[in-house]
Amino acid sequence: MDTTYIHLIGQPFSRLQQTMSYPPINEHSFTSRDYAHIRSLLSSVPSDTQRLFKKLCRLIKHGSIDEITEHRHGLTVTLCVCHKREQYNIEMYLSYHKWAWQFKAIHFTGKQLIPTQQRVLTYATLVFCTLLLIWLWSNDSIIHTFHGEQVIGYDDSERDQPNVTNHDEKSPPNQEDTENENVWQSQLPEFLHTYTHRQARVVENSSSMDGKEKENLEHERHTTHNRANGIQITILPGMNSQEVAELLAEKGLARSVEEIQELFITLQVQDKIRVGTYTFEETETYMDIIERLQEGQ
After folding, report:
1. Cβ 191 vs Cβ 265: under 8 Å
2. Domains of the chain by residue range
3. How far is it, in rounded angstroms, from Cα 118 to Cα 124?
4. Can you tell me the distance from the alpha carbon of 189 to that of 201, in angstroms, rounded to the nearest whole number?
């Protein structure tokens, strides 16, 4: 094919006529034999010759150019046309001598493909559904592998900053919670050494204290809770542990938000903080504050 026509491939037949100044199709382009063949191949076409000619002109005008072959005395153009959701190839021949178009042949090629707009919509829908499934999988059903075990996890941001719930009554601890509490209690000296900037008395096991020590400890707590010149904070319903940490740091009860928040996470008390108004002394340790926040005192 001549490079002159390459840019016209895929364009409508009318574009070829306008670009190359070719003559229009006229009634002499078809013979009675051509009309009979076309009626036998195409369904639901007019029986009147004049109306059939106009129908063919519209099909050819909007047909897509598949191939252009130039001969010594003329030009053959193969068009792809659609009729009743079926595809046909129509060959038209332009005679340079007569300077007129002549119908050559028509061939059935198959059912019409899905229109371009519908294909684009289908692909866009598939891409959207795929992205939605990926997002749901990555946020709600993250599978973490830890020490060879698969555990269904959740978003880290939700784990670090859960909402503070208003507990009216403490639920009875199960065996697993008791074991975890014993593990954390055994590690409290190390945590306090890292995070506490005030001196604190660490009790590893309350059962090891004698009666006098327990009485002194309860008296100390009762006295601290009822001092009128302490620092007062109010924890509202819906506040998460991050907001509580910011409030404690703002009031001077913690050196930094990150320090007290990390201790909340380490001791697993983010969702055990109770709402209410508290009065703290500056001499109270992190453990005293956390214990009171859990007890609601």
Report:
1. no
2. 3-111, 116-154, 162-295
3. 10
4. 9
Rounded-to-integer distance, Cα 86 and Cα 208, Å: 91
What pTM did the predictor assign?
0.39
Residue 208 Cα distances to 184, 203, 204, 222, 288, angstroms? 17, 9, 8, 21, 19
**Residues near 200 by beta carbon (within 8 Å), at least 6 away in sequence:** 192, 285, 286, 287, 288
pLDDT tens digits, one per residue of 78-135: 999 998 888 999 999 999 999 999 999 999 988 755 556 667 778 889 999 999 989 8
Determine the Cα–Cα distance for residues 225 and 230; give it in Å rounded to an integer: 9
**Is residue 279 within a helix (H) or strand (E), and if so which, with residue range?**
strand 276-280
Beta-ladder partners of 163: 240
Which of the residue ranges 2-11, 164-173, 174-183, 198-207 would you say has the lowest mean pLDDT?
Answer: 198-207
Convert 182-209 to b/e letters by CB count within 10 Å (16 or more is b). eeeeeebeebbeebbeeebeeeeeeeee
Look up residue 30 and give its two tokens. Answer: 């078809």
